[in-house]
Amino acid sequence: MFDALTPDAAQKRKAIIQKICLSQQPFQFEYEQEGKWTDSHFFPVVVNGKVTRIVVHGRDITERKQMEEKLHASEMRYRRLFETAKDGILIIDAETGRVEDVNPFTVDMLGHTRDELLGRQVWDIEFFKNTVLTEATFLELRDRGNIY
User: Fold this and answer.
1) Which CATH code, of 2.40.50.140, 3.30.450.20, 3.30.230.10, 3.40.50.300, is assigned to 85-143?
2) Which of 51, 92, 103, 121 could serve as a FRET partner for 61 with CA atoms 20 to 30 Å apart?
3) Residue 38's closest CA among 5, 70, 14?
4) pLDDT tens digits, residue range 42-83?
């Protein structure tokens, strides 16, 4: 049963089986071996209060893990760009007009802390008051599909 596993993986698998036999509860984990990722689910079959067998279901999740890694790398590049941009950037919820995120340059430019800006509606921020971007303008743009 453990022949195809590395010694470390076999030891971990044995420990999981012991844990399942004691707890009589299902167990799930993901692991990587030789560049392949597997999602394993262990389901104990309990008869008369004792685990008589364990049903194991595993599936290859390598493609998902690779996509997660790519997404994480993309998020890190975006975050670096967002944090270091010398332009003011506000991320605003398209439904409510509330500020969801703000970069450091905007914080410095507006003279508020990040926490003071987060959650406020953009038209309530002093810098934007009495400008073209009013609540009515925002709602009109949103309703026309110009804000995503």
Assistant:
1) 3.30.450.20
2) 51
3) 5
4) 999 999 999 999 999 999 999 999 999 999 999 999 999 999
